[in-house]
Amino acid sequence: MLVACQSSSFDDLAAFGDSANTLKDESAVAFYKNDELITVGKRQFQEKNYGKSYAIYKRAVDVFPEDPAAWLGLAASADMVARFDTSDRAYQQLSRMIGNTPVYYNNIGYSHLLRGDLRAARGYFLKAYELDPANEVTARNLELMKNSVNFAQRG
User: Fold this and answer.
1) In this predicted model, what pLDDT tens digit does every residue of 99-109 receive, in sequence order?
2) Which of 6, 45, 103, 154 could serve as 53's disulfide partner, Cβ 3.0–4.6 Å?
3) Residue-number span of the structural domain to which 49 is assigned
4) What is this structure's pTM?
5) In the predicted model, is pLDDT for residue 115 greater than 60?
6) DSSP 3-state assignment of 13?
7) Residue 116 has pLDDT above 80, yes or no
């Protein structure tokens, strides 16, 4: 007997573990009347399809250059695919839009954590903590950083 997740059909599955919804080709869309790019980008990011979310958010910042959500998505996606040159440009843009907020400091801090720059990451997380000591994301990031220090990376 085969045990697996309970699904009556395979319609929701696609190659490489992506759901079928993530494979829709949206490249021909020329007009975006709402935040569909950001919605699709978020879904891709949540499903850990970072390359796809990176491409979608890159398009989103072209279409909506004043939308901080588009820039945050681009920065986070770029961080996850180690495109730190792109994430640095996105964080520069975000500093003018939402700088001095816990969201900004948590995101840029996490970027530096991914790069292994723990000193800078801690500085940003502490700035987020100063602005909002009750912020759960900041608490998790500080704990993650503490764990990163305690367990050295081995090659």
Assistant:
1) 999 999 999 99
2) 45
3) 31-97
4) 0.76
5) yes
6) strand
7) yes
CATH of the domain at 45: 1.25.40.10
Phi and psi, residue 17, nearest 5°: 80, 0
Apex CA 87: angle with CA 97 and CA 119, to 5°?
95
Query: Does the pLDDT value for residue 6 go beyond 70?
Result: no
Compute the C-alpha angle 91/92/94, nearest 5°. 60
27-54 burial: b if 16+ Cβ within 10 Å, else e:
eeeeeeeebebbebbbbbbeeebbebbb
Please give the average per-residue pLDDT across 130-151, as a whole number.
Answer: 88
Q: How many domains does the chain have?
A: 2
Indicate the residue type of 109.
Answer: G
Average of per-residue pLDDT across 47-65: 96
Q: Could you tell me if 86 and 104 lie in one domain?
A: no
Q: Are 91 and 79 contacting, i.e. CB atoms less than 8 angstroms apart?
A: no
- Please give the DSSP secondary-structure letter assigned to residue 28: T
Per-residue pLDDT for 13 more than 50? no
Residue 139 lies in a domain: yes
Residue 49 lies in a domain: yes
144/118 same-domain check: yes
Helices (H), 19-117: 36-46, 50-63, 68-80, 84-98, 102-115
